[in-house]
Amino acid sequence: MGKGKMHNKHRNYDDENSWACGNWFEFLLVVALAIILLIGALVLVLFWVLYYRGGFAWNENPTLEFNLHPVLMIAGFITFSGFSMLLYRVGRCCRRIYVKLFHTIFHALAVPCVVVGFIAVLDSHNLANPPIRNFYSLHSWMGFVTMGLFALQFVVGFFSFLILLCCENATAGFRASLVPIHATFGILTFMLAVATCLTGLTEKTIFTLGVSYSYLGEEAIIINALAMTLVAGAIVMAYTLLREGFRYSGHILVSVQSEM
Amino acid sequence: MGKGKMHNKHRNYDDENSWACGNWFEFLLVVALAIILLIGALVLVLFWVLYYRGGFAWNENPTLEFNLHPVLMIAGFITFSGFSMLLYRVGRCCRRIYVKLFHTIFHALAVPCVVVGFIAVLDSHNLANPPIRNFYSLHSWMGFVTMGLFALQFVVGFFSFLILLCCENATAGFRASLVPIHATFGILTFMLAVATCLTGLTEKTIFTLGVSYSYLGEEAIIINALAMTLVAGAIVMAYTLLREGFRYSGHILVSVQSEM
Questions:
Q1: Residue B189: what are its φ and ψ, rounded to 5°?
Q2: Which residues in chain A land under pLDDT 50?
Q3: Rounded to a whole number, what is the distance in Å from the CA of B174 to chain A's nearest CA?
Q4: Which residues are listed as membrane-spanning (chains A, B) (predicted)?
Q5: Which residues numbered 213-232 in B keep a CB inside 8 Å of some CB on A?
Q6: B146 contacts B192 by C-beta, under 8 angstroms
Q7: pLDDT mean over B12-36
Q8: Contact yes or no for B239/A184 (Cβ under 8 A)
């Protein structure tokens, strides 16, 4: 038993050491890059809509009401959801329940964005003259899949990881087995959201700029830059979330506590 | 030590048992679904191109030459690459080196598909009357990122996991540390490829069907079905590849051998 304990201690020491050397730099770089890209996408879509597309309006002007759609969907599905997922990598020193609560709050902030963004596109189609048909494009079908997965994740997450805490011990096994599935589908929902944004941007650009898109004017470059920010965001987020070493593991926390 | 060994054995027995119960069914279901979706996407794109878009030609007919682009890109980036990654989950009983070799062969099969698919779209633009500009759309920019990541993964994988085997012991640590990075970027390249296909399909559909897309005729439904097959493929592949329990681990293989 003594040998086992020493072996464990040695391994923890190694883990800590390797984090001190190169991993902290890598971790901070990747997290900083992720934050810049998540906020960068929101800033770029706001700039695009305000500077080139005439800003916002509610249903008195359906064309401008549409502009709420890309901004709110990127705010909800990319920026807020992205931050919410990053919390599980950044919040290494906080108590797990606080990380969980902020994870829920950030996702809860995404809900009104998605709902209003959805109403905005419906209004802008239905109130247009002549009205534009709904739910025909593959972008809209992908949007349904993304929103469905998001809702499912939110409901399952809320009940399993917060409500079921009321009978903590009885549900520990179930909750633990659900964690990797919830995490996998969370990353997947984010990737699908990025893909849906990219098809939406393609649609909007072709409908708005038409043939002039191919001459890569100012607006076209801004849209392509927004698309590339989303792609880079997806790459950096996937790397940050899937990198084994970045995982916030209770095991390490417990061993550190036992050493103190 | 005796106690430790018993504990180990007990854990392996548990692993085997839990696989026998529910995980085998889940594993086979998910792998079968992934195979159906990977082949399904190829069949659907072939059907679309042959039945609605007039089939194939080389550069004597640039419009028909374009049709090679979606088919070959889906064949290379989705079907072959998908199979190549699935091998690491399916080949549980084979020697690792065979899995590696077939992983390389499937990816090597993807290379000519991607190259000819790329030449086909260039030709179809340059030989059109009037010529169509290249590399302006976000689809093309995403295509560059995807092809770049694919090439990087191929070269790094080939040198690190096959060539460096010549001095096996000296490079073991380096190779082991590279495995999770190679795997993460592999899944990411697949997801990016799916997203790029979806923006490409959006472009082509709007350019070809125009306003009639919104009436969801036969062809529009086929294209949307193809898009949904790709989305479902991305979901099932991510689940299969990221699910911890499905991972082919040398640790289990070694313990099983020691039991025999």
A1: -60, -40
A2: 1-14, 16, 250-260
A3: 15
A4: 27-51, 71-89, 101-121, 141-166, 178-201, 221-242
A5: 213-216, 220, 223-224, 227-228, 231
A6: yes
A7: 76
A8: yes
CB-based contact A141 B192, cutoff 8 Å: no
Q: How confident is the model at residue B20 (pLDDT cuts 50, 70, 90)?
A: low
Are B188 and A239 within 8 A, CB to CB? yes
Among chain A residues, the shortest Cα distance to B140 is held by A224
How far apart are the C-alpha atoms of B140 and B230, rounded to whole Å?
18
The CA angle B91-B95-B98, to the nearest 5 degrees, is: 75
Of the pLDDT bands very low, low, confident and very high (cuts 50, 70, 90), residue B25 is: confident
Q: 3-class DSSP state for residue A107? A: helix
Instruction: Lowest mean pLDDT of A31-35, A166-170, B118-122, B149-153, name the range.
Output: A166-170
Q: Grade residue B24 by pLDDT with cuts at 50, 70 and 90.
A: confident
- Domain boundaries in chain B? 26-245
Domain spanning B26-245, CATH class: mainly alpha
Distance from CA of A216 to the nearest CA of B (A): 6
Identify which of B133, B188, B244 has the shortest CB distance to residue A235: B188
Q: What is the pLDDT of residues A144-171, one digit of tens each?
A: 999 999 999 999 999 888 888 888 788 8
As a whole number of angstroms, the distance between CA A148 and CA A137 comes to 17
Residue in chain B lying closest to A135 (CA) = B214
Round the average pLDDT of chain B to a whole number and report it: 87
Contacts of A228 in chain B (CB under 8 A): 138, 141, 145
**Token pair recorded at residue B78:** 């989705």
Q: Are B77 and B193 in contact (CB under 8 A)?
A: yes
pTM: predicted TM-score of the whole model, two decimal places: 0.88
Choose among B3, B187, B224: nearest Cβ to A138. Answer: B224
* Nearest neighbour of B214 by CB, restricted to A133, A138, A234: A133
Calpha distance B123→B58 (Å, rounded): 9
